[in-house]
Amino acid sequence: MNQQKLIERFGLSELLLDQNNRSVTDDKIELGIVADEINRDFREAVRIGTQVGLRRYEVRFLKSGRAPVCDRAELLEVERIRDGEGIEITALSPGLFKHTSEEATFKDEMAEVLPRAVECAVRWNLPALIVFGFQKPSATEENGDLVSSDNPPEQVIEWLSEAAAQTAATKIKLLIEPEPICWADSGAATVHLIQRVGSGTLGINYDPANVAWMLRRDAIDEFDMVAPLIGNVHVKDQLDAPLGSGRPTWVVPGEGMMDYQGHFAALQRLGYDGVISLEPHMDGSLETIQKCKQAVEHLWNTALAGYDTLNCMPCR
Fold first, then answer.
1. Which positions ≥6 away from 114 have C-beta within 8 Å?
2. Do the Cβ atoms of 278 and 55 come closer than 8 Å?
3. pLDDT digit string, tens, across residues 40-67
4. What is the model's pTM?
5. For strand 24-25 and strand 237-238, is the pairing parallel, antiparallel, or unpaired?
6. What is the domain partition of the chain in residue ranges?
7. 20-310 topology per CATH
């Protein structure tokens, strides 16, 4: 499905679909990775990542802290490595609003973190920042799936509206990543928040494994609801576990509860051609990263073959 058809089908703005970073070209997937999933030393992360053919990197944690609230010299070093190695920076995840539940914390982030994150995004020619949906009261990574996100307080909507308004003029989008500890803890909850705000500046960082952590099931049934808002994708997998069992056991994609062949087929039908990044939550060894990359490429190609056959198209 091309851009014009997506606009007609979902009523999307061209801004949402105007993605500077493309990871799917002629139906081939060019994976990226969240760099600190390998190592917080960006140079070391790139050294290992490029050995397995990864040349696209999302920046989150560096040695001195979570970017951009870290040593400025490290940010400049990221740029030098990018230019010297010919790699691409695809996204920045500054952790905005993940652990935010109080007015004072929100104001501090709006004054200190968001402007610096936007500055980095503009400097690095990024279309969006990855953010979160504000922490639910008493929610932790151990119990977040037991804390309901029904009826989020009006203050959350006001905060999200203020953040969207502050970034709108820069044309930098805010992509909300569902997370069990946040009011945006599932695809449906995230869509409802965005609808209540009503800003075209907001979108979704599609992370179906985070949603599965919250719901303790693969919520592929949410795909049609979130599809118009997807601006970035994270991939990881986990073993099945009951509600209240805490942090998941993370495994190589395809070895857990996630139906990534189904998710990838849905993305292919959508015509999604934005960034897809590994976020394994495992050890950052070359062997593990290579296994994850190969597994995702296989799942993508298998989904593509099935999609092509279904549509009477020759398999590529």
1. 94, 96, 163, 166, 167
2. no
3. 999 999 999 999 999 999 999 999 999 9
4. 0.90
5. unpaired
6. 20-310
7. TIM Barrel (3.20.20)
Question: Exposed, middle or buried, 154 (CB in 10 Å: 0-12/13-18/19+)?
Answer: exposed
177-213: pLDDT as tens digits: 999 999 999 999 999 999 999 999 999 999 999 999 9
Cα separation, 50 vs 87, whole angstroms? 9
- DSSP alpha helix (H) spans, the chain: 3-10, 14-17, 42-51, 72-85, 103-108, 114-123, 154-168, 187-197, 208-215, 223-226, 260-270, 286-310
CB atoms within 10 A of CB 301: 17
Q: Which residue has the tokens 């934005």?
A: 274
Q: Which two tokens stand for residue 193?
A: 């928040």
Q: Which residue has the tokens 């929610």?
A: 139
| CB contact set of 65 (below 8 Å; sequence gap of 6+) | 71
Closest CA to 134 of 114, 92, 105, 168: 105
| pLDDT tens sequence across 144-169 | 999 999 999 999 999 999 999 999 99
